[in-house]
Amino acid sequence: MATDDFFRARLDQMIDLRHPLVVLAGRLPWGQIEAALAPAFARKHRAGKVMLGSDLFGTTLEIAGAGVSAAGRPRLPIRLMAALLYLKHAFNLSDEELVARWSENVVWQYFSGQDYYTPQLPCDGTQIGRFRTAIGEAGVEELLKATIDTAVQSRAIRPAEFERVIVDTTVQEKAIAHPVDSRLLEIARAKVVQAAKRVGISLKQTFVKEGKELRRKAGGYAHAKQFKRLRRTVKRQRTILGIVLREIKRKLTSPISESPSAIAPLNTLLERAERIRKQQPKDKNKLYALHAPEVECIGKVRRKSLTSLSRPLTRLVTRPAVPSAVAYLCMRRWQRRRVKPRGQRIGSLDHGALCEEATSPASINADGMQG
Prior knowledge:
This protein is an alpha+beta fold. It has 3 domains: 1-44 and 73-155, no CATH class; 159-174 and 295-371, no CATH class; 181-291, no CATH class. Helix content is 41%, strand content 12%. It has helices at 20-27, 30-37, 78-91, 95-102, 106-111, 125-153, 181-198, 208-223, 227-252, 260-278, and strands spanning 45-46, 49-55, 58-64, 67-68, 165-173, 296-300, 307-318. The strands form 3 sheets. Strands 5-7-6 form a 3-stranded antiparallel sheet, with no helix packed on it. A two-stranded antiparallel sheet has the order 1-4. Strands 2-3 form a two-stranded antiparallel sheet. Helix 3 (78-91) crosses helix 6 (125-153) and helix 7 (181-198) runs antiparallel to helix 8 (208-223). The chain is extended. The chain starts with 19 loop residues before the first helix and ends in a 53-residue tail after the last strand.
């Protein structure tokens, strides 16, 4: 193919067109992927706010900030970010390692839709995490479905191979702070107040100064083993959190200019904060982190780490193994063991659908495998 730039050669003239990633780049439905992920990055319409104005004829009402804003930096191509997410999982790289290797690998750049070699980084490493958060679980499943459909259409995988799966279950330690009641109550109060201000709810009291002071006192009382004073401090923290929650719930019943989609995160925070306020030390199904409700305590030890906070993970891998061109499914070589869950039935996995079996912590052995 003739080059549009006289001083640079196209990537398709520099690489082996039989490379698995090059072949996969020509078979993946990039148009379908971009159309499915584009709504997550579309600029949203804002209702605006009614403000008082004045002109020659007296006081008037004006709507400020309405419509679709064109401000902000233009987003990166969706194909580029989707290809980076694919390469990250296929080769098991961190975000920083991924962008560094991308700037050196011409095959990866061709797979991402580039026509010419680019020595610069495609983006900052943190943008990959923000892209993954923006598309959500549904977007990641859409990428996986497109990969599986491409593998079936190219006859790299037969649909019958999805009828049998291998379940590899393990437990991953969760990197969260030690779940102290006073800390959880203070974080819940601060996050709820921030979310309320974000949707335009003005609170009579936010207890910012008192909340920080109570958190400091609770840490000192716990260190000095003054448990009676500690219980009194934690009780006061529960009280002020309840005051804030009740005031927000009362004001949510009144009409608010914000859309329901903007109020949904606030309702989620209110539900979790109420769980933290009511839970007691001996309760079951406690909430150990406000941002990670899936964390569970599976063991306690009398060492520096008082509790082991983890979450069970279940990975389904098809058998036989998928070729390297569709390595998104199982590129990493795990030491697999056949697992027969107790009281559970593994259903068939149709191509284009992601089947996941939940694993209870009680059925996990010390080796991290389901017994």
